[in-house]
Design brief:
Layout lengths: L1 H19 L3 E6 L4 E11 L4 E5 L5 E5 L3 E6 L2
Antiparallel strand pairs: 1-2, 1-5, 2-3, 3-4
């Protein structure tokens, strides 16, 4: 019985830590749309674009003036 409880506790702990380790970011655009990015978006200071990886793993860029806000998804 103790082994089952220990195993279930380990599984729950792993699931909790995985959920907390989310590295997704939400980009809220000025036109009202939203984009989910994998990992923290980076700013290219020469082109004034925010570069991010989309949900399909493709690298995308958007002009910084088109973004209203960015927030980390928990």
């Amino acid at each position: 019985m103790k082994k089952i409880i220990l195993l279930l506790s380990g599984v729950l702990l792993s699931a909790t830590l995985t959920a907390c380790a989310s590295n997704a970011w939400m980009l809220h655009m000025k036109d009202g749309s939203s984009v989910v990015a994998q990992g923290k978006p980076e700013m290219d200071s020469t082109t004034h674009e925010v570069i991010y990886t989309d949900e399909n793993g493709q690298q995308q860029a958007v002009n910084e003036t088109d973004i209203q806000s960015m927030s980390r998804v928990n």
